[in-house]
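Ester cyclase, pasting as requested.
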Amino acid sequence: MVDHSISEEAKAVVRKNTEVVQGEGDWDLFDELFADDFVDHTPQSGVSADKDGVRILYKGLRAAFSDFHAVIHWQSVEGDLVTTYKVYHGTHSGTFFGIAPTGRKIRFEAVDAMRVRNGKITDHWGVGNLYSLVQQIKGEDGPGIG
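Structure tokens follow.
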């Protein structure tokens, strides 16, 4: 059985990453929350699967989408894994995937699992609906928009 307080602490670490690091760009907190030997098991194309790669990804998203933030809809903990379902929002104000800024409002869903040990994020697995995101940037209708 997992200690309830440890589960809540792990959820709080992941929530801080989503809300304060990704949503506000607090890079000092990023360094505190991510273990130096962090591994991203599902890295995005063009970035390394380590802590530096995630930092580059986060900074790129914040540069491409002003007011970038996520709304967490739910979190679940099993052992040391925190699974989060969230919807990201922002305004396309910088180049993303080679697409020049359009000023369009975007939203896309993501689900990820992060392992938290001793208050640090050590591993990540996740999927984001980037197809929907690119469709929105291009102004195309399609599934997942609405």
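Note for the archive: Strands lie at 34-40, 65-78, 81-92, 105-117, 120-128.
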